[in-house]
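Re: duplicated header lines in exported structure tokens

Our pipeline writes sequence and tokens for each protein into one text file. With two proteins the header for the second block appears twice in some exports. Here is an export where it did not happen, for reference. First protein block:
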Amino acid sequence: MQLLPVITLDEQAVLGLRGDNGNFYTSMQLLNTLESVFDEGGVEGFCLDLSSVDLVEIDGLKRVLNNWSDRARDRGLRSCLVLSGTTSAASLGTLSEVVDRTVVKMFQEPWVGSLPGPLAPQDWFETALGRARDSIDSEKLIIALGAGAVDWVSSKAKPDKVPYAQAMTELALAQSAPIYD
């Protein structure tokens, strides 16, 4: 078993890596922050979660990630990325080249305006899985399956995430059962 904590980068964090011309550049501040986490020890590596980020300017991002991954390897640590199942084949392939492992989330994150429905409809799942398998070396690819539910409440713009155990308890109390797509 390997312990690789996840560091989530949102749009604002990724925007912090951009230079004035809109291209990514190697951010010493980000790398120094990650190095301070490396120095705390007790882990075998780190994952950067980019699954909620719109991946543009992949070549610049690849340079930053390559620098980060090299620094991790110099410390004897593994590097990994967490990407969305909606990530393009080109981005999956390009970004997975510079890290030791790539985790692909095989479920869709509901957001404001999402319609009620499965988080991983069968046809979407098969397409996303095929794209990941075709784009990432099998030794590097890790598939993440969702283990939860979503409660769409009509008075809220964004649905509530519900842990799996809670969802199963609520279904049992309602004398119902889950429907798997």
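Second protein block, exported in the same file:
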Amino acid sequence: MNMKQFADWLSEKLYLGGRIRVEEMDDISFALEVVLSHIISFGTILLIGVIFDKSIETLIFVFMFGLFRTLNNRYHAETFLQCFLLTVGSLLVSLFISEIILSQFQKQFIILLSILNIILVVFSNSAYKHTISMEYIVLMIALNVVVVACIAIIDKRLLIYIETVALILIISTVFSKQNE
């Protein structure tokens, strides 16, 4: 049973139990699907943060995904399972990459990721006829500039993590524009 089927089943149970009217079933089902999907996804993300002792990184991930998703549509998976795996996978990949880059290459890696992110967001917007919101572009460029400016004062693993999350967000935005 997928998430939509489960939400439909719950909605039907609420209707049969006299808790909602028949004309409310579709709206309630959709709301249940969204709420349950978010609870499971973000609950898993928070649990991973606790298990790996990466609370700051987890909060940054949730903040960045939430902020950039509101500014511009990103790729939307067709099913809850695909969305769940892509979201949790993005968190895990970002955590993994930030931990494996050797300390002598961290500064260079941050700068390269920042340049790549800026080039991708600017040139992708041109390639897709300026369909990426200006707020998204400005905020993404500002984020990358701030990360590079903070190289001397903030843990480089955290900066690599932020740049990796930004890269995933940009790629998912570009991918969504390709599929429009």
